[in-house]
Amino acid sequence: MSQVLRGTPVAQKILAEVRQYAQAHPLRLDIILVGHHEASHIYVSHKLRQAEKVGIKAVLHHLPEKTTTAEVVSLIQHLNETPEVTGMIVQLPLPAHISEQAVLDAIAPSKDADALHPQNLGLLAQGRARWAPATPWGIVELLLHYDISPAGKHVAIVGRGRLVGTPLTLLLSRPAAYGNATVTLCHTYTRNLYAYTREADIVVVAIGRPQWFGAEGIKPGAVIIDVGIHREGGHLIGDVQKEALEKAGAYTPVPGGVGPLTVACLLNNVCRLHEAAQSNTAGLLSR
Ligand SMILES: NC(=O)c1ccc[n+]([C@@H]2O[C@H](COP(=O)([O-])OP(=O)(O)OC[C@H]3O[C@@H](n4cnc5c(N)ncnc54)[C@H](OP(=O)(O)O)[C@@H]3O)[C@@H](O)[C@H]2O)c1
Predict the structure, then answer these.
(1) For residue 221, is it within any domain?
(2) H or E segment at 237?
(3) pTM of full prediction above 0.90
(4) Does 199 share its domain with 94?
(5) C-alpha dihedral, 54 to 56 to 61 to 65, nearest 10°
(6) 44, 43, 39, 78: which is closest to 58 by C-alpha?
(7) Residues 155 and 247 in one domain
(8) Is 200 helix (H, G, I), strand (E, B) or coil?
(9) Which of 19, 32, 188, 227 is least surrounded by Cβ atoms within 10 Å, i.e. has the fewest?
(10) Which residue is closest in CA terms to ligand 1's atom 1?
């Protein structure tokens, strides 16, 4: 029987710490959402609801689909200069006509709750970050909670996206308690993908394709982290097929795996932003 790595208890632990911090400090998270991407609306509603539960003021800026890059950047600049705003995120993906890079570049690094600004990603690569992109850091929290140390393991990450695969590669390969793994980063140009993933002790699948990853891609007993979330026929499903999960030694379920950790780690980042703004002595990323 495979072990189910539930994210909810890990998220609850993080949220309890966030609640405690928020009781002592006024925190505000601004969320910019552009257009009508269905999944984004669901993610944003989770973030708003959870923020309210832990005592973080969350403000939604829902802009119409036809909003221009300049208009989004102008709102971000206004929020950068608003002292009450502790941190902000722009919900991705943006409509195709908006420059994602220009928008992410406009966020002040000190208010960048998703840690996607080039300065924050640079600090992450150098091991000097104080907070990290929420989903990859949530995966780190989950592994460590279940005593699955990445140190010395071979981790195959499938998908080199901006939100998950690329920052997770940086984190897990760092010489740190949460890292020291040998990481193989796979993508659509990887030839014979399963030859790599079958060698791995931990396989992370973050490709955005419903139930795509099959049992042939996994060695018996390996750990699978399924990052995908898709709504099909009224149910939520991941990127990994059921047969692959059954062959694994342990796996994250969908729903209830990585998803709750993404929200918890985002809200935790708001505390870290506040802490860093108050003092130069705020600690580096650690676990
Ligand atoms: N659970 C959560 O809380 C949570 C949070 C954030 C994101 N997500 C999900 O995680 C997934 C990844 O998000 P992202 O923004 O990091 O990535 P992304 O920008 O959507 O990129 C997807 C990546 O997967 C790769 N890929 C797609 N099909 C592939 C295949 N058949 N074989 C190998 N590689 C393949 C692509 O390769 P190329 O670069 O070669 O095109 C790309 O690097 C999405 O499904 C997203 O919805 C979940």
Answers:
(1) yes
(2) strand 235-237
(3) yes
(4) no
(5) -40
(6) 44
(7) yes
(8) coil
(9) 188
(10) 259
